[in-house]
């Protein structure tokens, strides 16, 4: 999306909500990907931040986010993703998730607002929007979510990618699953995105968005 998935400008300056740099604690390092967690005083669910260095330029990574069919394949737990509308620099996306049993399927409407900096960085701010799509029977609607995707060029063909998220998943989520999600979501997402981007070899994917 020229603004996308947009997935997030996953919130930044890079503090999800009110988190400061000191709040984040390194929880896992694997294959060069770092996952940090933060406990919010206003939520029982932890925020996560994943950071990875990917051998692809910002344009390639942006296109992989903007093509929603492809984006849903590398975004952890994504079941379906479709464009609702584009309004200026904001894109609205409907997303459904397929979390492991015993969690029920969730859905949400995401507003993704994209900023581009003079150094070539791209930040996508992501937030849940309520009342835009009717409630679907059998789905649990996620109404509180904010996040950031940040992509900062670190060389001619290398980008530091940060994926950060704070969400209230609604409904009942077993503690073991919630604890697993905040590690798996950034780790699997960034690992898969890196594999797709580096395999693509710099050839940008077609975008579903105008």
From TrEMBL:
SUPFAM superfamilies: Bet v1-like (SSF55961). GO terms for molecular function: lipid binding. GO terms for cellular component: cytoplasm. Coiled coil: none annotated. Gene3D superfamilies: 3.30.530.20. Residues 17-202 form the START domain. InterPro entries: START-like_dom_sf (IPR023393), START_dom_prot (IPR028347), START_lipid-bd_dom (IPR002913), START_lipid_transfer (IPR051213). It holds the Pfam family START. Residues 1-21 form the signal peptide. Keywords: Signal. This is START domain-containing protein. It comes from Pseudomonas abietaniphila. The lineage of its organism: Bacteria, Pseudomonadati, Pseudomonadota, Gammaproteobacteria, Pseudomonadales.
């Amino acid at each position: 999306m020229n603004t996308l998935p947009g997935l997030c400008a996953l919130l930044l300056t890079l503090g999800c909500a009110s988190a400061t740099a000191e709040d984040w604690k390194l929880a896992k390092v694997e294959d060069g990907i770092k996952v940090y967690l933060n406990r919010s005083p206003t939520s029982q669910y932890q925020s996560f931040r994943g950071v990875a260095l990917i051998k692809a330029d910002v344009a390639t990574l942006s296109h992989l986010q903007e093509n929603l069919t492809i984006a849903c394949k590398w975004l952890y737990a994504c079941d379906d993703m479709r464009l609702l509308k584009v309004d200026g620099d904001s894109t609205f996306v409907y997303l459904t998730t397929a979390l492991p049993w015993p969690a029920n399927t969730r859905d949400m409407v995401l507003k993704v607002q994209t900023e581009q900096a003079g150094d070539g960085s791209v930040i996508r701010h992501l937030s849940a929007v309520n009342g835009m799509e009717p409630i679907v029977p059998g789905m649990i609607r996620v109404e509180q979510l904010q996040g950031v995707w940040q992509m900062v060029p670190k060389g001619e063909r290398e980008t530091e990618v940060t994926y950060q998220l704070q969400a209230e998943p609604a409904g009942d989520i077993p503690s073991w699953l919630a604890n697993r999600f905040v590690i798996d979501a950034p780790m699997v997402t960034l690992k898969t995105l890196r594999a797709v981007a580096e395999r693509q070899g710099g050839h940008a994917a077609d975008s579903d968005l105008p």
